[in-house]
């Protein structure tokens, strides 16, 4: 009977709702202003990082199909 009461205590602890404190989010202006040129360079680098390898694979797809 003691094992049953212990296991029921574990189930109650698992089913108990945990309250998560609310995050204090406040909008503030940016510390450093990012210029348009910097944004263009960053977005170009991100797109090239993703699109160049995938484009290369798609361009050589027939070569991959011919491999044994």
From TrEMBL:
- Please list every transmembrane segment annotated in the UniProt record, as residue ranges: 40-59
Question: Keyword Metal-binding, does the record have it?
Answer: no
Q: Is Transmembrane one of the keywords UniProt gives this record?
A: yes
GO CC terms for this protein? Answer: mitochondrial inner membrane; respiratory chain complex IV
Pathway(s) of this molecule: Energy metabolism; oxidative phosphorylation
Q: Which InterPro entries match?
A: Cyt_c_oxidase_su8, Cyt_c_oxidase_su8_sf
Q: Which UniProt keywords apply?
A: Membrane, Mitochondrion, Mitochondrion inner membrane, Transit peptide, Transmembrane, Transmembrane helix
According to UniProt, the name of this protein is Uncharacterized protein
Q: What is the lineage of its organism?
A: Eukaryota, Metazoa, Chordata, Craniata, Vertebrata
